[in-house]
Amino acid sequence: MHKHTISPEPLTLEALEIILDQDTTLSLSDASVDCIQACRKYLDEKVRTHSDPIYGVTTGFGSLCNTSISHDELGDLQKNLVMSHACGTGEEVPPEIVRLMLFLKIQSLSYGHSGVRLETVNRLIDLFNHGIYAVVYKQGSLGASGDLAPLAHLALPLLGLGDVHFGGDKRQALDVLHTFGWEPLALESKEGLAMLNGTQFMGAYGCICLLRARALSLWSDLCGSMSLEAFDGRIEPFLDQVHQVRPHKGQAATAANIRKILDGSALMRE
Fold it and tell me: Catalytic: 205?
């Protein structure tokens, strides 16, 4: 079991690869907890003391930006936002992509710039750690400020709504929550907006494609190195001096990798 601690430090591809490939549990660092709580405290104070409208927090969205929302309806506004945007269609997104979406959303919220409660982030971590992945659809994203429809589906289980994949089965989210003794969350101001704004859907696909491309590049170098030996090729075209003349970073990296693979090769010394 791999344990990964969410922190304000930037993510690396190496860390993502480990999280994807291994059975991983997440936890929040003290620094991330402090960031989340400080931002939520700031937002709550603004809502309590600020007389001017705060878009999407104390107002409606889009053409309803001039419609004020009473304080006792701020949570309903966020819940309705999530439900109204959960309008995806088409094929289901593979669970490995949803898992990565969930991780990237947790990472994004943990920086403390979104105004969500610590309770909300911890519930997302619970979903990740127990392998509870929302059913998300490939088509239907509005694309205005991110992956609105896919992220709305990702957020539905927080409310006990929608379907999830759990334990190899597709089940209603509320049933799975009750399996663990959890009650649906009641979103508070800004939280629905924080869940929907972002690019974790396209980001997850981008990360998967990049990691797979890196793996293919490595296999290409291995196959090329074996072929170079098999066909009695020469190592000279891969020497660093040659690639300094045409300073293409990827080309130089590939040449360096081939030199490393063939280091000590008796055939290359002949």
Answer: no
